[in-house]
Structures are given as structure tokens and as C-alpha cells.
Specification:
Largest sheet: 6 strands, mixed
Shape: globular
Oligomer: single chain
Number of helices: 6
Length: 175
């Protein structure tokens, strides 16, 4: 099993999408890239820890590859928006790939280069490539948040439309 750690705005959205993919065995919301080894939601929301909201995705590379994981990652959020995804604003919502090794770093650079060369986005990609460090799981109430709270106003307004768009685009690789 391999692990990808990705920041693409609110981790509720990221988890709701990646948890539906074939080959993905777990998706855990958490925090990564900050100055301390562990943190909390309250501290991260203050924007002072340097952590990003992320999902740690465990996947079987025989079923889904890291480049395929990145294809989903770049689809489900706006990688041209600096420190913001929709109404969520701050460095904790940055677009980031926290690479675990040089292979992931090279794959991430290649994905960004291809998207740029193919002019997929009208603006420059601002996704940061950061070494994996200082990860901690989010509080348990964040786990499977959308699945447990589909009627919550933020989920209705933000998460559900992202999930529906994702499901249409990736129907061939869903569970």
C-alpha cells in the first residue's frame, strides 16, 4: 500500500471524493506541513501553525497509481487559487502535495508541467510541493463528515456539488 497526502481546501470535500475510488483503502483527514508535530482544528483555523488541512490517502498501486490519484486531486479543486478554495480562505486551505519520496515529487512536478503545457487552467498553478512533515490526524468528528452530515449547510452548498461533479467525471473508477 502507498500513501498520498494532499491538501485541496476543506478536507471534508477531499475525503468525500477519494473515499469512493477503487483501490483506495482509507482516507483520513488531518493536518500537515506546519511548524509543530501535532495541532488541532482550532489552532489550524487561526492560520498560525503553518499546517494545511489534508487527507492522507492509502491506496493499492496495483489498482490506482499515484499519477491517477493526482489526476483526481487536480480535478476536485482549483490549483490556481492561492490559499483559498471557494469561501474557505487561509494558508490552511492551500493547494499542496506533501510528497513522501522523490518518486512522488517527480510525478507531481510532471503532472503540473503537463497541465501547464496543455493550458488546462487559464492561470498559473500555485500548488505547493512540500516534503511530508508534521502530520497529525484531525479530530474524529471530521472523519466521514459528509457521509454523516449530508444535510449540513456547508455540505449542501460546497461538498455535495464537488462530489457530484467528481462522480460524473470518474464514474469508471468508483467503487
Amino acid at each position: 500500500m502507498a500513501i498520498a497526502t494532499l491538501g485541496a481546501g476543506c478536507f471534508w470535500c477531499v475525503e468525500a471524493c477519494f473515499s469512493q475510488l477503487k483501490g483506495v483503502s482509507s482516507v483520513v483527514p488531518g493536518y500537515c506541513g506546519g511548524t509543530s508535530e501535532s495541532t488541532s482544528y482550532d489552532d489550524v483555523c487561526k492560520g498560525e501553525t503553518g499546517h494545511a488541512e489534508v487527507c492522507q490517502i492509502e491506496f493499492d498501486e496495483n489498482v490506482i497509481t499515484f499519477p491517477e490519484i493526482l489526476k483526481v486531486f487536480f480535478f476536485i479543486h482549483d490549483p490556481t487559487s492561492l490559499n483559498r478554495q471557494g469561501e474557505d480562505v487561509g494558508t490552511q486551505y492551500r493547494s499542496a502535495i506533501f510528497y513522501h519520496d522523490e518518486v512522488q515529487l517527480k510525478a507531481a512536478k510532471l503532472a503540473i508541467d503537463r497541465l501547464t503545457e496543455n493550458k488546462v487552467y487559464s492561470q498559473a498553478i500555485v500548488t505547493s510541493l512540500e516534503p511530508y512533515r508534521n502530520y497529525s490526524n484531525a479530530e474524529t468528528y471530521h472523519f466521514n463528515y459528509f457521509a454523516r452530515n449530508p444535510g449540513q449547510p456547508y455540505c449542501e452548498r460546497v461538498v455535495r456539488p464537488k462530489v457530484e461533479k467528481f462522480e460524473k467525471a470518474f464514474k469508471d473508477i468508483l467503487l
